[in-house]
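Duplicate of #3305? Posting structure anyway:
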């Protein structure tokens, strides 16, 4: 009869071998540290020794203050200890410092091992090196021209300040736009324009408060977020300091240039409790400020207070559609090598009788939230197909129209588009619908909708590619025909990081057998780079601004 002791011994040996294999695999893949209940290190694997730069005998017996970087505030560590000392698992991303002073990032999970009394006796920390991931993230958070943060950086940091309460009881978001910046570019060239933007960023760095956040959003537009603003008078004093920064001329090569700022501001929480609301209202204020003459450079007006609330704006949109206040402009899209005209993108505008031209950034979000975008979007499709039907049919031009999230997920969108095409006589093979990465989140529904549009002969373009979080494997399975490079990436052409990003997107499009078009082309060097790397098409002010239908016809005739 088989010896039961021998059987148990064999099973134990088998389980022990499995545990050893698991331990070896974990040690190969992860950074493992074990501490006692006080946080004193009792075990450090080879991966921790390697990444920290300390010898094992230097690590064992010490604690994690040895690798503390100073990046995280004390509250971060207090929250960690509260969690693990209560017996719960804690996870976050931690920035540490090596023995030679270099920073590195680890995705950290700390698991408490509880004793018989239910309290932690040891802590096992399992970490994965994410330094490269954080480095790549920083590429899209930095404005390569000026070295300050970009729009994504500003939005994320402001959100964090508000969420953590560090924005204070009141904060101000200020948008700064340079008057006559285009004249500097036209007169002195884009290199001088770029140098001016660098000088402005340096000047703003000098005068902003130590806790203020500075970013360049796009073009000649800057943002300063001022947490802890006491009252309106304090804000006006800080704005006066900003305006004084522009009184001294800027040295550009052999020129001394004076430029003046327009400013628009919004207060948190008075004008909005989210980054999106604050940006929208500050942008509205900036638009009104830009309408004033440059003689009033010392003046700042609190315009955001007069912005209509979403309910009023929605009602005005309903009226505006009935009264034909909305209109379309068309921006030409060209073949980059031959400069042959390929088609046009339809862009919606609103001319309000009392407020003047209202930025789409102001009203489209309200239309989307309220559901009015369905009616407004149908009008855009109908008007664009009616106005451009003859041009596309006779000369083979494409018409591109943007879809919103609500439009895209309309149950009968393909039938609606087919009906509009039959009503207007538009050839659907000449229609391109632009969708964004965020619209593709509902995978199955998105795939069905795209397939139905594809069967109609409609082309689909993935707009603003690179700014969302779509899985590449997911994109490769959608019936797309085109990728559109976002203007923020085009503006970074000429920098090492920007060049790498744009080349990657172009190569990805070619790998997926998709056409690629770049938007926001404003400089000859951007055009040369895109041509050199086989980007087929593009649009931007280098070729033409958005044009009315009459102006567009004149351009085509000429």
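Output from current build:
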């Amino acid at each position: 009869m088989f010896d039961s002791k021998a059987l148990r011994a064999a099973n134990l040996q088998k389980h022990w071998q499995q545990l050893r294999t698991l331990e070896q695999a974990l040690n190969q893949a992860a950074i493992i540290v074990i501490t006692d209940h006080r946080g004193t290190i009792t075990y450090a694997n080879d991966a921790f020794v390697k990444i920290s730069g300390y010898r094992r005998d230097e690590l064992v017996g010490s604690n994690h203050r040895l690798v503390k970087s100073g990046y995280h505030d004390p509250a971060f560590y207090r929250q960690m200890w509260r969690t693990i000392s209560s017996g719960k698992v804690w996870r976050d991303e931690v920035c540490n410092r090596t023995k030679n002073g270099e920073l590195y990032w680890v995705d950290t999970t700390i698991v408490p091992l509880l004793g018989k009394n239910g309290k932690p006796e040891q802590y096992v920390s399992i970490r994965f090196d994410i330094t490269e991931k954080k480095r790549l993230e920083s590429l899209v958070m930095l404005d390569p021209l000026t070295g300050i943060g970009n729009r994504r950086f500003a939005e994320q940091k402001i959100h964090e300040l508000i969420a953590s309460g560090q924005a204070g009881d009141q904060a101000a978001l200020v948008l700064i736009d340079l008057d006559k910046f285009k004249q500097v570019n036209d007169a002195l060239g884009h290199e001088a324009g770029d140098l001016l933007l660098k000088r402005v960023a340096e000047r703003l760095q000098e005068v902003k408060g130590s806790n203020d956040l500075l970013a360049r959003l796009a073009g000649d537009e800057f943002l300063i977020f001022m947490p802890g603003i006491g009252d309106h008078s304090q804000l006006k004093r800080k704005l006066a300091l900003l305006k004084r920064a522009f009184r001294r001329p800027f040295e550009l090569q052999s020129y001394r240039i004076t430029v003046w700022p327009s400013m628009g501001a919004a207060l948190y929480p008075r004008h909005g409790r989210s980054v999106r609301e604050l940006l929208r209202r500050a942008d509205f204020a900036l638009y009104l400020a830009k309408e004033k003459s440059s003689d009033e450079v010392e003046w700042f007006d609190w315009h955001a207070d007069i912005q209509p609330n979403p309910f009023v704006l929605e009602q005005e949109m309903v009226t505006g559609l009935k009264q034909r206040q909305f209109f379309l402009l068309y921006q030409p899209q060209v073949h980059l090598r031959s400069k042959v005209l390929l088609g046009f993108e339809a862009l919606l505008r609103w001319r309000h009788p009392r407020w003047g031209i209202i930025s789409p950034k102001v009203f489209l979000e309200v239309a989307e939230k309220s559901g009015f975008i369905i009616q407004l979007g149908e009008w855009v499709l109908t008007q664009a197909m009616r106005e451009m039907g003859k041009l596309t049919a006779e000369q083979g031009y494409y018409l591109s129209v943007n879809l919103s999230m609500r439009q895209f997920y309309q149950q009968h969108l393909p039938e609606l588009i087919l009906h509009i095409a039959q009503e207007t006589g538009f050839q659907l093979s000449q229609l391109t619908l632009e969708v964004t990465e965020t619209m593709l989140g509902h995978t199955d529904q998105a795939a069905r909708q795209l397939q139905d549009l594809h069967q109609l002969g409609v082309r689909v373009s993935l707009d603003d590619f690179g700014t969302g979080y779509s899985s590449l494997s997911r994109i490769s399975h959608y019936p797309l025909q085109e990728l559109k490079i976002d203007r923020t990436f085009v503006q970074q052409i000429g920098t090492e990081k920007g060049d790498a990003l744009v080349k990657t997107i172009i190569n990805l499009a070619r790998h997926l057998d998709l056409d690629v078009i770049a938007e926001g082309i404003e400089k000859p060097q951007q055009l040369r780079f895109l041509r050199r790397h086989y980007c087929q098409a593009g649009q931007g002010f280098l070729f033409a601004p958005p044009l009315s239908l009459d102006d567009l016809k004149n351009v085509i005739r000429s």
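Confirmed duplicate; merging threads. Residues 140-306 form a domain with the Alpha-Beta Plaits fold (CATH 3.30.70.270). Residues 294-306 have pLDDT under 50 and may be disordered.
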